[in-house]
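Late entry, written up from scratch paper. The run itself happened at the end of the previous shift, but nothing got recorded in the book at the time, so transcribing now.
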Amino acid sequence: MCGIFAVFNYPDDIHAFRRRALLLSKKLRHRGPDWSGCKISGNNILCHERLAIVGVDSGAQPLTNEDGSIILAVNGEIYNHKALKKQLRSGVTFKTQSDCEVILHLYSEIGKDVVNHLDGMFSFVLLDTTRNRFIAARDPIGITTLYQGWSSSSPNTVYFSSELKALNEECDKIISFPPGHIYDSLTGETTRYYKPPWWDGEIIPKNPINYTILRETLEKAVRKRLMSDVPYGVLLSGGLDSSLIASIATREAAKLAANGYQEDSDERENTRSGGVNGLHSFSIGLPGSPDLVAARSVAEFLNTIHHEYTFTIQEGLDAVHDIIHHLETYDVTTIRASTPMYLLSRKIKAMGVKMVLSGEGSDEILGGYLYFHAAPSAADFHKETVTRVKKLHTSDCLRANKSTMAWGLEARVPFLDKSFLDVAMTINPEEKVFREGRMEKYILRKAFDVSTTGDVRYLPDSILWRQKEQFSDGVGYGWIDSLKDAAEQHVTDEQLANAADRWPKDTPATKEAYWYREQFESWFPQEACIDSVERWIPRRDWGCPEDPSGRAQRVHNNAYNNDANV
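Output as recorded:
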């Protein structure tokens, strides 16, 4: 991933604005420390901060076509770029080895419909100088971040940035650009292009579970995400999701090594870490935390090169203020879980690793959060999974992206692969709901259990059937308690009682939420910044508590009948 900053239809001297634009783009340089680029055409400017993952030596951005009439700045990875190249008319000349350059040439042939052909995670801005047309798009789920802004002093000017911090001093209206949408300056409209069959939560799917298809689709999702010209690894919390991704990645990397990195070349690229030197796995927690113990057992089972890090409560508390600056949110759950991920990402990047696979998305797709136990019906369960997937860009995708990119580390999330979503989100929710003998995410566990894999063991049973721990809980229960204690010291009872006077919109209900909101305001005092933030709260109408922690749910640590043959 990278950082992009762009302005369309700047009202004054664009060349005089160039220095200011470069300073604003520099605020994103943590996302792309490898190179910076800037191009001006007319009264438009595109800036780019590059993190080189694919086409390291030749992929500097912004990219241009042969005659320079199309200019492109991209944040992301296009996994099917080789297949797309084969679909182009003959005679197209590629200047780089970048997986993103294909967007330029595909746009020149089919226009903005290019977004419907991309398989990957991406946010991009593209300038067609022949038509003075500016388009911007974001991947279907919002794995990458993108913001759009306007200034009332120049209402016809449009700003785009990978992060809020490059816009808040220039714009008085800022939104999180909606995932699965595309903006076209010719019409001034933003329209949804991503229209999967499961998008309407009111339509309850009826497809029976096919464990083989579920398993093989996830394996393919992991396989295509091993596309890398730089060292990579896996984040391993020891929970079900990250452990499955690590297990699949280990198997697929070994296949790559055995086949000399040639098999299925449309999906597989040169891979620096995995297979030849072994897959590297990374975990973090407070000393003795549940996640560290579980991750260690997974690493031993998979024979990964495992790196285990611990942090102290004080180190975590010291990082919170900076984390809020990077996350650009005051959401309680996101900040709790981002802190260890932020600290771990710094350690990983220091080792020279630039890309990791991670397990985000599974809990939203399969209803894995413990509060889903309170769903009144299978239909309600399904509607909530659709809602949570649609909102991933405000929570777990935001956390995974910004916690890692704070240090120039890219996180890839196989569970949010479009094909996997189409399989998992169209399964009859009666297969997903909890009942006697079936714990959360039963169908995913069953798909990788020896009873359905032909005796292939992906994980130890103790991990495959381990109860859900949210990351902020699993790193050590003392972490959340310490955050609450710190908030208690910083926020008085009187301040909390008067919170609505200070913040009539999105008023914090706890001292911890108040403390985060106060720190967010110190970084982003402009009122426009609030519109891009959305809080993650379980369903109160289902009887769930205010605290979104998994440990706060009534079912936490309940006994389950985990018989895989049920």
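The domain at 3-192 is CATH 3.60.20.10 (Glutamine Phosphoribosylpyrophosphate, subunit 1, domain 1).
(Scratch paper discarded after transcription.)
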